[in-house]
């Protein structure tokens, strides 16, 4: 597990911060191509759903309310 001790000095004052975190065993790496693929797939799915709703509601033009 990655660890680190970071120091910060300002004049006479000295502060430290110890960092320790655990990495999951079955995580996926999320890099730019992965995020781009997720965004593009989301946009395509949204457009497909919008076209489907438009086509379904577009055929009911003859049934207007009074």
UniProtKB/TrEMBL annotation:
One of its GO terms (molecular function) is transmembrane signaling receptor activity. One of its GO terms (cellular component) is external side of plasma membrane. Residues 1-30 form the CD3 gamma/delta subunit Ig-like domain. SUPFAM superfamilies: Immunoglobulin. Keywords: Immunoglobulin domain, Membrane, Transmembrane, Transmembrane helix. One of its GO terms (biological process) is cell surface receptor signaling pathway. The chain crosses the membrane at residues 35-56. This is CD3D protein. Coiled coil: none annotated.
């Amino acid at each position: 597990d990655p660890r680190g001790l970071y120091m910060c000095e300002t004049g006479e004052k000295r502060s430290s911060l110890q960092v320790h975190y655990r990495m999951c065993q079955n995580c996926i790496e999320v890099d730019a191509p992965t995020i781009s693929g997720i965004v593009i797939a989301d946009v395509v799915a949204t457009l497909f759903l919008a076209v489907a709703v438009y086509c379904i509601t577009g055929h009911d033009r003859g049934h207007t309310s009074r």
